[in-house]
Design goal:
alpha+beta, Beta-Lactamase, Helix Hairpins, 3 domains, 5-stranded antiparallel beta sheet, 14 helices, 12 strands
Length: 432
């Protein structure tokens, strides 16, 4: 049975040269239009033949794979994959699938992976097989055979669609973090009340015991009892401090904001912590951008957040090293970076550093970075942490400039005013 393409060629050959030229010119225009349309799509689109050679690639895919000044058409896709995870995924047989399929069978599938080349990002990947359709007669038979006909169709290639889902994952994580904090705030209020009352009672009884011990005759027994009571009081105070710290981390806080010069704030903190830093044989490098304008912030809270990060960096460099502090103006945002050459941390720990009570320190509460995260987000900012074992950690805080804050407030006010100015929607009159 002649295929659709056989019939098309047969009819095309019967046309006169002038009509053939017109048809070919039209096809060329349509082809160019399709290329321009696909190049405007933000998602990466790649079409492969059965040998996994590239037959089409749009502009977004070229950027994603880092292909500049290179023509990859009719060349193997694997040649251009530098990232190990992408290479492993598309080297599988059948293409990209973790599970073996029936001989010659290719099925559509989706997956999400983290890649590091040409930059760290989260990729959502859809792989769709291309199959040959031989025309209306075959399509009629296909409806009778159901899915079995799909398996029997000849595979002619594969379509790969890749979407950068990095921002979407960050938004999901931010929403999840916000939901966790809301739940913790409710829990904290109850826990603080239930634990706070017994702690107060214990504190009062410790004071009574101190008075009774003070009335004893001087001697070894009196000293031992006094030492035990003193230890108990310290532990009570420590537990009360953890509760108050936890409440501060989850309760909504009212910011006492004013314009602050971030360079001066950070420099003052480094001066304050200089003795502790120098004792650990840690050098300090400062790179301040003099063009940074004032930032609207609660100075006390931002100081608390930055000091916590500095102390964490010092503790992560036990044998001496370097702490580099950088500020820079990036558009309407201020970027503050603390980079140390310490021990770093593995990926499984990095994903939990903002979780409440997660700590690897013997005497740590596990609330420090959670509080830092809350302070930064309360200032409409972002905090990102990158780390590599044995190489160090980099903490980046991004805050809006005073001008951006003003614009956001003005935009919000103008939208609210425009909404209020809209006439009410007429309600349908009820039939009486």
């Amino acid at each position: 049975m002649a295929t659709f393409w056989d019939k098309l060629v047969e009819r095309f050959e019967k046309l006169d040269p002038e009509r053939q030229e017109r048809y070919l010119a039209g096809l060329a225009r349509e082809h160019g239009l399709l290329h321009r349309v696909f190049d405007t799509i933000e998602d990466a689109l790649i079409v492969l033949d059965t040998e996994r050679r590239i037959v089409f690639i749009n502009r977004a895919a070229r950027r994603l794979l880092g292909l500049t000044g290179t023509d990859p058409i009719n060349r193997p896709l694997l040649k251009y994959l530098v990232d190990g995870k992408l290479l492993e995924l598309f080297a599988r047989e059948p293409l990209g699938q973790a599970q073996p399929a029936a001989p010659g069978e290719r099925t559509a599938f989706s997956t999400e992976i983290d890649v590091h080349h040409p930059r760290p990002m989260v990729l959502k990947i859809n792989v769709l097989p291309l199959r040959r359709h031989d025309g209306p007669s075959d399509r009629g038979q296909e409806s009778d055979r159901g899915q079995e006909s799909v398996r029997g169709q000849e595979s002619v290639g594969t379509v790969i669609v890749m979407h950068d889902a990095t921002a979407e994952r960050k938004h999901r994580l931010a929403a999840f973090q916000s939901e966790k904090l809301d739940a913790l705030a409710t829990l904290a209020a109850g826990v603080a009340h239930e634990i706070g009352n017994p702690l107060n009672s214990l504190g009062i009884h410790m004071q009574l015991l101190e008075r009774e011990i003070a009335a004893l005759k001087p001697g070894r027994r009196r000293e031992e009892l006094a030492a035990r009571v003193d230890t108990s009081k310290q532990e009570i105070e420590r537990l009360d401090g953890i509760i108050q710290q936890f409440l501060g981390a989850v309760r909504p806080s009212k910011l006492d904001t004013k314009p602050v010069q971030i360079n001066e704030l950070v420099d003052g903190l480094l001066e304050f912590a200089y003795v502790e830093i120098a004792e650990q044989n840690i050098g300090i490098e400062k790179h301040y951008d003099p063009a940074i304008p004032p930032v609207l912030m609660d100075e006390a809270q931002i100081k608390q957040a930055c000091l916590n990060i500095i102390k964490n960096a010092v503790q992560a460099i036990p044998g001496g090293g370097l702490l580099t502090v950088t500020t820079k103006l990036a558009g309407d945002e201020i970027v503050l970076t603390f980079a140390d050459t310490g021990v770093g941390m593995p990926a499984e720990r990095l994903g939990r550093i903002f979780d409440p009570f997660y700590t690897t320190k013997a005497r740590g509460s596990g609330l420090g970075l959670m509080i830092v995260h809350k302070i930064v987000t309360d200032h409409n900012g972002r905090i990102d942490v990158a780390s590599e074992e044995s190489k160090g950690t980099r903490v980046t805080i991004t805050l809006p400039t005073l001008e951006l804050e003003r614009r956001l407030i003005e935009d919000g006010a103008s939208k609210a005013a425009a909404f209020d100015a809209q006439p009410p929607t007429p309600r349908a009159r009820e039939d009486r």
